[in-house]
Design goal:
Elements (H helix, E strand, L loop, with lengths): L1 H29 L3 H8 L19 E8 L9 E9 L2 E7 L4 E7 L2 E7 L9 E8 L2 E8 L24 E10 L2 E6 L4 E6 L8 E5 L23 H7 L11 H5 L7 E9 L10 E4 L5 E6 L7 E5 L1
């Protein structure tokens, strides 16, 4: 009996020791640091795939741009241009009123000497354009040229140089209810200016030789203080110029408000900044200056304003 009791006691002790060991081992595993636990969970190195890397395109930029000198330039003067740009490519361009012209491909970083020519006198600046893909940006410098044709005939002139010296011509002027007319001998030209209705701010002009239709006398009597124009102004007003046959000048201008007067007109044009575009200035008998130009390169309309 004693041997049986001793065996049972030893067996119970062994079971207790095994149970205790298992409990202690489980606690040890649960107390492992998080980094160690994570490390044990990582897959083998050969199972890790490298992530795809998408390159990021940088936008174009002009880091530096200088042009020297930029003022009082004359034909034959040298302009030193330096630039540093970022992008796929770069272009060095002259700048006219509407935008870049005469562009040439250049390195992204460089220096170049540009010699002023007669053609450049109509430009307003110089610049380098950096391009990357569909994007582009500019580094720009304004240019100011010494006027080769002398001075303007009026005060507070535009920055652009005159194309030539002013032309002085014998001229005639007549005011109307809704505008006025001017004729100049040099060149032989009629101008009709509108200041009322749908054509307000527009003008028409016609150069000799003139193709007049048969005369159409006016039978109506104007109100007191008004009169019908005569001579060339009268023929235009009566719509006898074949070119403007469908233009109701008489209806748009109304009656003349005073007889025509003779005077000496001065006219001068600016150097054109773009093909098909021009701006000319003409003096009226009271000393004011008209500014005339086309509204676009298509020259559908011609517009005017007082300077």
């Amino acid at each position: 009996m004693k041997d049986s009791a001793l065996s049972e006691s030893r067996l119970a002790g062994i079971v207790w020791l095994v149970t205790a060991a298992l409990l202690i081992g489980g606690c040890a595993v649960s107390r492992l640091p998080q980094s160690a636990a994570s490390a044990t969970a990582q897959p083998a190195p050969q199972a890790v795939l490298a992530a795809a890397v998408t390159p990021v395109a940088l936008p174009p930029a002009v880091l530096a741009f200088t042009a020297n000198p930029t003022t009082t330039l004359q034909v034959g003067d040298a302009i030193t241009v330096q630039w540093q740009a970022v992008g796929d490519r770069a272009d060095l361009c002259m700048i006219s009123g509407p935008g870049p012209v005469d562009c040439q491909a250049v390195a992204l970083t460089g220096q170049q000497t540009v010699t002023v020519t007669d053609a450049m006198l109509s430009y307003s600046g110089i610049g380098v354009r950096a391009t990357a893909g569909e994007q582009f940006t500019w580094g720009l410098a304004d240019l100011r040229f010494a006027c080769q044709a002398g001075a303007w005939f009026f005060a507070d002139p535009p920055e652009r140089c005159p194309e030539a010296a002013p032309v002085v011509s014998a001229a005639a002027w007549q005011p109307f209810e809704h505008g006025f007319m001017i004729w100049t001998q040099t060149p032989d030209r009629f101008y009709v200016f509108f200041d009322h209705g749908d054509r307000a701010g527009q003008f028409l002009f016609a150069d000799a030789p003139y193709d007049f239709l048969p005369e159409q006398p006016v039978t109506e009597t104007p109100s007191s203080g008004l009169l019908a124009p005569v001579s060339g102004f009268g023929r235009l007003w009566r719509n006898e110029l074949s070119w403007w046959r469908d233009t109701d000048l008489r209806g748009q201008l109304g009656w003349a408000t005073a007889p025509e007067i003779a005077y000496d007109a001065m006219r001068q044009c600016a150097l054109p900044g773009y093909p098909g575009m021009w701006t000319c200035y003409m003096q009226t008998p009271d000393g004011r200056v008209l500014v005339t130009r086309p509204d676009s390169t298509a020259q559908v309309h011609f517009v005017w304003e007082w300077k």
